[in-house]
Each structure stands twice: as structure tokens, then as C-alpha cells.
Amino acid sequence: MDAQVVIDSYINSVASRLPRRLRNDVGVELRTLLTEQLATAAAAAGRSPDEKLATDVVRKFGRPEEVAARYSPLGFQIIEPEHAPVFVKLSAACVAIQWALTLPAVFVSRMTFSQWWMSWGFGAFAWVGALVVWFGLVTWGRRRSLVDPESLAPRWWHFLLWLPLPADWRPVDREALKRIERRTELGAFPLGVAVTIFLIAPAWFLGLLTPAGTNTSWALYDEHFRRTLLPVLIVLMVVRLALCATAAMNAGLRARLEMIRYGLWVCFVGLLFWTVFGWHIFAIPAVDAGFKAWLLIYLLVNTIQIILWTYRALTQVRVPPTVA
Amino acid sequence: MVKANDNSATKLDTELRRGVVVLAVLSQLRTAQYGYSLRQALAERGMPIEEGTLYPLMRRLEEQGLLASEWRIADGPPRRYYKLSPKGSRVYAELTENWHTLVKTMNKLLD
């Protein structure tokens, strides 16, 4: 093959990857430069330009796609590098939450594993697609400067487009947040005790609280649930209440009990999710469905609290006592 | 371990050089040059730059308005000559001043 054919082939390969406006101009310039380089290489080798020399020259110059990219970046980022960790975490969390909420149905034989996989299981990856679209729009919006990152209003744009909020950063008093949590917890303690007692036998308590002869049989538990899962749930509720009271009364024990209480909280919420999706709680289906709807709201709030608690715990810098 | 250190040193050296490539190129384009002659001028002064890096860089600097170019036909094939544009001259002067300040600072730090 003629040496010039090698050069021309290479030039065409580079040019085909360039934007149209640059293609010919860069192609002609490169052709001149590489031909000159080939002549120099041939003179140094003491022979006429040949295929091998030409191949060496263009190989040394770089692969056509790399050279083309140096002239004009061809690719673009769908997700900005600084957003990548948030994207990965959000994607993983969305898939994990969907699986955690729906997989219990397989273990209680309400659906087979393959049915689950073909519906909820594989379907969870739709979250990843949705997040790619969201983050892609964010990247596009930022590149097009739809919103000034330094502007403060409207504030919700910042959350929607993952824009930084540099100017209005304010310190967060985590201790104050904990104090509010503790006060709320203490305030809700009597309610927790009342609910725990009531849930042991709701039909019986309703019979005590309503006029004689009122039918309270609609509040009877499903027999299987009452015999097997209810005692476990009640014990967990009692233990949680006991730990809450201990932590409130003994400040020294509070920090040591924190992880145990957190673990029990997660277990309790997980168990309740399983109960909602895998068990009949009340004997009458309509009562069961209504109670589960309220329970799901409770679980949603608790799941958000657990996520926030975990985030705070994982991101908090723990200053060693010697440094403090 | 030694190999890893060597790699790190090479990478850091490349990073260091990458930072000054633009200034080196601008410095040699106060008079018009085409790609091959510029590469040789830089190599002769101890700053060899790969062709695959240099030629696209000249184009990018032109797109940024720092260089002006024109095709010239003299004794040989047509060649594209590049030279500092008025904006490029201003930027070059500014970068040169910054470079001298930086060198003084670095010398103080390294001594």
C-alpha cells in the first residue's frame, strides 16, 4: 500500500469523527502535517516513505477517536461527576426499598419468586431509569444555565436541580434536634403505653369503653396472627417503651442504649412491613384493609425518620473525647 | 511499591507540564508558525509536545480567540500558520506575569 494512502485513510478516519464545520479544514491541515512528519521520518530512516513508516507515524499520532476527541469533545456527561455519588445512593436506596417492601410477599407464599421478579423485582430498576432522566435534565439545565446556581429564589429549584446553596448556609444544631426528638418521645410515651395495652385485645377494650351490648366483634384479630405474630410485636413494643423510659430517666445510659434502641426500631418497622404485606391482622377483611392503610402511613413516617437518623449518624463527625 | 511511586511521579510530572503547555505554545506564537515548525521550536527549547496533543490544542486556542490562523502557500504544500491574536497577546502578557510571580513563590517555597 502506498504511504500516502495510509495517511489519507487515517485522516478520513479522524475527520469522520469531527463536527462537520471542522471536518475538511482539520483534515487538510492534518494531512499536510502528517505528510511532512512522514518525510522527516523517512529522511531519518534513510529510505523513501513506505507503508510501514506511514503506519508508525499515524500510530504514534494517536487512535483516530482519541485525536478527534482532542479537537472537539464528542461525548457529554448525562450525570455530572459531583452528582454521581448521590445518584448511586439514591438508585440503590430506591431499588432496595422497593425490594424490601415487596419481597416479603414471596416468603408468605402470596406470589412465587418468578412472579415477584417479573413484576416488583425487575420493575425496581425503573427507578434507576427515572433517576437517569432526572439527573440528565438537571445536567442539561445547568449547562444551559436555566437557573443561576448562586440565586436563592425560587428555593425549590435548588432541590429539583441539585443546585448548591452556598450563600444561605446555616449551621444545624444537631443537639437541639436531639432535644426536640427526646421531648417528642417523652410526650408520646403515655400514648405509646395506651396503644400497646389497647392492641393486646382491641375488641375486649372496646367492649369496656362502649355501652353494654355494642358489637365489638369487628375488632377481633385474625386467629393465626393473634397466636403467632401479635405476641412478638407486643413484646417488642414493651421493650421499646421500657428502653425509652430508661433513656429518659438515666442520661448516662442514653448514649449506650442509642444503638440498641435504633436496632429495635428498625426490627419493629421491618416486622410491621412484613405484617402489612404478609399477614391478615383483623379477621374481617374490610377492617384489616382499613387498619393496614393507617399502619402504612405510620410506617412511611417511621421509614423516613429511620433514613434521616441513619444519615445523621453516618455523616456526623465524632470528635474523640481527648480532642474535645 | 517502588513501581507505584515511579508511576505517581510520572503522572505528577505530566500534570505539571500540562499546566504550562498553553503558555509555552503562546510564547512561541508571537511570530507565525505552522504546526510542525512550532513542535520543532518547542522541542529545540526543551519542551517536546506530542503532535497528537499539540495540533488539536492550537485549534482549541484559536476557537477561544487566542490565536489567529491563515493558510499560506510558499515553497511546499499549503500550511496553516498560527499567530497570537490581539486577545491572545493580552492573555499571554498576563499569563507571563503570573508565571514569573509563581516561579518566585515556588522558589521561595522550594529553597
Describe this entry's structure for a reader.
The complex is a heterodimer of chains A (324) and B (111). Chain A is an all-alpha fold and 324 residues long. Chain A has 3 domains: 3-71, no CATH class; 81-161, no CATH class; 174-315, no CATH class. Chain A has helices spanning 3-15, 20-45, 51-61, 64-71, 84-102, 104-107, 113-123, 126-143, 155-160, 174-200, 202-209, 223-249, 251-278, 285-315. In chain A, α1 runs antiparallel to α2 (20-45) and α10 (174-200) packs antiparallel against α12. Chain A is elongated and about 110 Å long. Chain B is an alpha+beta fold. A 3-stranded antiparallel beta sheet of chain B has the order 1-3-2. The radius of gyration of chain B is 16 Å and the shape is globular. The interface between A and B is medium-sized, with 17 and 16 residues.
Inertia-based shape of chain A: elongated
Query: Topology as H/E string of chain A?
Result: HHHHHHHHHHHHHH
Q: Structural class from helices and strands of chain B?
A: alpha+beta
Number of domains of chain A: 3
Roughly how much helix do the residues of chain B carry, as a percent range?
A: 55-70%
Enumerate how many helices of chain B there are, as a single number.
Answer: 4
Comma- or semicolon-separated keywords:
heterodimer, A: 324 residues, mainly alpha, 0% strand, elongated, B: alpha+beta, three-stranded antiparallel beta sheet
Summarize the structure.
Chain A has 324 residues and is an all-alpha fold. Chain A has helices at 3-15, 20-45, 51-61, 64-71, 84-102, 104-107, 113-123, 126-143, 155-160, 174-200, 202-209, 223-249, 251-278, 285-315. Chain A folds into 3 domains: 3-71, no CATH class; 81-161, no CATH class; 174-315, no CATH class.
Summarize the helices and strands and which ones pair or pack.
The complex is a heterodimer of chains A (324) and B (111).
Chain A: H1 3-15, H2 20-45, H3 51-61, H4 64-71, H5 84-102, H6 104-107, H7 113-123, H8 126-143, H9 155-160, H10 174-200, H11 202-209, H12 223-249, H13 251-278, H14 285-315
Helix pairs in contact in A: 1-2, 1-3, 1-4, 2-3, 5-8, 10-12, 12-13, 13-14
Chain B: H1 2-28, E1 33-34, H2 35-44, H3 51-63, E2 67-72, E3 79-84, H4 86-110
Antiparallel strand pairs in B: 1-3, 2-3
